[in-house]
Design brief:
Layout lengths: L13 E3 L2 E3 L6 E5 L6 E6 L3 H20 L2 H17 L1 H12 L3 H21 L6 E3 L6 E9 L2 E5 L7 H13 L2 E5 L5 H14 L6 E3 L4 H10 L3 E7 L2 H11 L5 E5 L4 E5 L5 H13 L9 E7 H16 L19 H16 L3 E4 L14 E4 L6 H4 L6 E7 L2 H9 L6 E5 L3 H10 L4 E4 L18 E2 L4 H4 L4 E9 L2
Parallel strand pairs: 7-8, 7-10, 8-9, 10-11, 12-13, 12-17, 13-16, 15-16, 17-18
Antiparallel strand pairs: 1-2, 3-4, 5-6, 6-20, 11-19, 14-15
Helix pairs in contact: 1-7, 2-4, 2-5, 2-6, 3-4, 3-6, 4-5, 9-10
The chain binds NADPH dihydro-nicotinamide-adenine-dinucleotide phosphate (NDP) and glutaric acid.
Glutaric acid (GUA) binds next to helix 5.
GO molecular function: succinate-semialdehyde dehydrogenase (NAD+) activity
GO biological process, one term: gamma-aminobutyric acid catabolic process
EC number: 1.2.1.16
Length: 484
């Protein structure tokens, strides 16, 4: 049982049109603690008809919300931000219980999630239009920015709070309303955010949180003509399905999909900094982020030294329940995730890679996996081509800058990338050559609310966070006025 200071944050009902509702059928989905498999709660499995009711409520809520002054929306969002910060410990406890990440990391995510609300509460006041110098003397040309309308968000389990606020905050700031469907593994953090949104004064229907079977809920949201935009974070495979489902109604789309991040260490890098960056990038959230280093390319001159230093640090990473003090690596989310990590590892070993540290399920059992470092990785291995989404760092040896750029770009993904060099000229060359939406130079941590997060190629469409993030929820209306 999760112990909370404010037990009312643990909800087993959905927020629909300002009321907390269960499925009329009584159907539920079980939520389990990945650290020990215990049952934490049951949340509603809504029917398609119940999801449609939420869409109708959103349609009714849109105009009054969009009609508020931006300052009014900003004040309400600011209250939501403050309530999340005030309840950070409880939200972190819920998150660790359902997702498994260490408590300190969960608390960090809660504050990260809150930062998007604070940021977009401010950006709400800066949605400027334009006046364009006209090509004819008797014309005046203007550009208005208006909210897109009813929006939907489908979010993953790896960041149960931040992936919701990174979408809902800009949407609400712009004057849109939002329906959120969290991942089935992590609905409790989402519902708790709904409790605080209600308390902050976000009106009925403006932010709704729906739980249920993904195809049922997703099918109604993507098929509805009332829903004008979908924002999705998750796998590229599901992103493709949702894009196709949105095609008949030509919805706006933001897609934040899979990655296959290269992490490049050049001979002239600060090796200790590169090791720390690799730990931060690779092992955050037990390797379950779309921006995690997936392939570590290390130049031949420093390969052995880097491998040795990294393996020493990785072997010392404390693994355990997220609630235990000092733990840095929690369990993986489910058995399928564990099996994917194992199969990537077996494939790599069969093709000639060697384990330096880790390499198997952790003695704790359950969903725990040992933080692992592999050497001898090559491009024909699954670890080179697919997102492993677990605590396995495959090290690839390379000789030249040209060679590593070609290797790094040899993927259909283009989300995050990282490189370490002390050479400023090389830094410019490499940043310009990497076909990625985001590049970390001498750092393994790049995410924050003020920067544009997103990918190119099959890693997605659009940007979240930063002043670009609110544009995803705004339509551009051109107004041409003749003076005669
Ligand atoms: N870019 C990223 O941040 C993420 C990438 N991934 C990648 O995807 C792999 C698989 O993870 P997984 O959790 O299965 O990711 P998914 O892409 O399947 O799930 C992400 C979200 O999409 C929902 N969803 C899944 N299928 C549909 C559908 N047909 N219609 C509507 N919604 C749908 C899920 O709902 P529900 O949970 O209810 O099924 C969840 O809310 C990971 O190993 C990782 O490689 C995963 C998560 C995040
Ligand atoms: O993994 C994701 O889906 C989001 C990455 C988390 C972040 O750095 O914002």
């Amino acid at each position: 049982m999760v112990q909370l200071r404010s037990p009312h944050l643990l909800r087993d009902a959905c927020l629909i049109d300002g009321a907390w509702s269960r499925a009329s059928s009584g159907a539920t989905i079980e939520v389990h603690d990945p650290a020990d498999g215990s049952l934490i709660a049951r949340v509603p499995s809504l029917s398609a008809a119940e999801v449609s009711q939420a869409v109708e409520a959103a349609g009714r809520a849109f105009k009054p919300w969009a009609g508020l002054a931006a300052q009014e929306r900003a004040k309400i969002l600011r209250r939501w931000f403050e309530l999340i910060v005030a309840n950070a410990d409880d939200l972190a406890a819920l998150m660790t219980a359902e997702q498994g990440k260490p408590l300190a990391e969960a608390r960090g995510e809660v504050l990260y999630a809150a930062s998007f609300i604070e940021w977009f509460a401010e950006e709400a006041k800066r949605v400027y239009g334009e006046v364009i110098p006209a090509p004819q003397a008797d014309k005046r040309l203007m550009v208005l920015k208006q909210p897109v309308g009813v929006c939907a968000a489908i979010t993953p389990w790896n960041f149960p709070a931040a992936m919701i606020t990174r979408k809902a905050a800009p949407a609400l700031a712009a004057g849109c309303v939002m329906i959120v469907k969290p991942a089935e593994q992590t609905p409790l953090t989402a519902l708790a955010l709904g409790v605080l949104a209600e308390k902050a004064g976000i009106p009925a229907g403006v932010l709704q949180i729906l739980t249920g079977e993904s195809r049922t809920v997703g099918g109604v949201l993507t098929g509805s003509d009332t829903v004008r935009k979908l924002s999705f974070t998750g796998s590229t495979e599901v992103g493709r399905i949702l894009m196709a489902e949105c095609a008949p109604t030509i919805k706006r789309l933001s897609l934040e999909l899979g990655g296959n991040a290269p992490f490049i260490v050049f001979d002239d890098a600060d090796l200790d900094a590169a090791v720390e960056g690799a730990i931060a990038s690779k092992y955050r959230n037990a390797g379950q982020t779309c921006v995690c280093a997936n392939r570590l390319y290390v130049q031949a001159g420093v390969f052995d030294a880097f491998a040795e230093k990294l393996a020493a640090r990785v072997a010392a990473l404390p693994v355990g329940r997220g609630t235990e003090p000092g733990v840095l690596i929690g369990p993986l989310i489910d058995e399928a995730a564990l099996e994917k990590v194992e199969s990537h590892l077996q494939d790599a070993l069969a093709k000639g890679a060697r384990v330096v540290t880790g390499g198997k399920r952790h003695p704790l059992g359950g969903l725990f996996f040992e933080p692992t470092v592999l050497v001898g990785a090559t491009s024909d291995m699954r670890v080179a081509r697919e997102e492993t989404f677990g605590p396995v760092a495959p090290l690839f040896r390379f000789e030249t800058e040209e060679e590593v750029i070609a290797l790094a770009n040899d993927t259909e993904f283009g989300l995050a990338s990282y490189f370490y060099t002390e050479n400023a000229k090389r830094a410019w060359r490499v940043v310009e050559a990497l076909e990625y939406g985001m590049v970390g130079h001498n750092t393994g941590l790049i995410s924050n609310e003020v920067a544009p997060f997103g990918g190119v190629k099959q890693s997605g469409l659009g940007r979240e966070g930063s002043h670009h993030g609110i544009e995803e929820y705004l339509e551009v209306k051109y107004w041409c006025s003749a003076l005669r």
